[in-house]
Amino acid sequence: AETMSVPPFSLDKPRYDQSKWIGRTKHFFATTNPIYLFTSDSALKDSLDKLQRFKEGRSAPGTTDEDLWKARTMRDAVVHPDTQLPIPAAFRVCAFVPANIPICAGMLMTAPTTFNVLFWQWVNQSYNAGFNYCNRNAG
C-alpha cells in the first residue's frame, strides 16, 4: 500500500494544491465529509485547542502534521469563518446532500396534490433559507 505524504502544516495555506483540479476535489471531499455531522463539542474544542497551541508555538509533544491537518479540516467544516461559532449540524455544508435526499424524495415521490406541492416546497425553501443564513458572509 502506497502511503501518502503529509505536507507540513500551515494555518494559512491549503493542504491540497488549489491550482489543480485534484487538489480542489480533495479539499471539497475533506470538508464535506458527513462524519462532521457527528462532531461533538469536546472533539471540536480539542481541535481548536490543538490549532491554538500550534499558533502560539507550543504544540503538545507528539503532535503530527496529520493531527493538525485533521484539526484544521474539522474547524473548517464545523466553525463559521466569520462568526467563529459552530454551525448547527443540519446546516453545515457536509449536511447539504444528506438533508436534501428526503426533501427531494418528498418533492418527487408524493402525489402532486396541492397540499403536497405546497408542503414540500415550504420544506425545501425553509431548509435552503436556514442553510444560506448559517453559511452567509457575516463579515
From TrEMBL:
GO cellular component, one term: mitochondrial inner membrane
Its membrane topology: Multi-pass membrane protein
Keywords of this entry: Amino-acid transport, Membrane, Mitochondrion, Transmembrane, Transmembrane helix, Transport
GO BP terms in the entry: amino acid transport; mitochondrial transmembrane transport
Pfam family membership, one: SFXNs
A GO molecular-function descriptor: monoatomic ion transmembrane transporter activity
Origin: domain of life: Eukaryota
InterPro entries: Mtc (IPR004686)
Compartment(s) where it occurs, according to its Swiss-Prot or TrEMBL record: Mitochondrion membrane
Mitochondrion recorded as keyword: yes
Family classification: Belongs to the sideroflexin family.
Protein name from the UniProt record: Sideroflexin
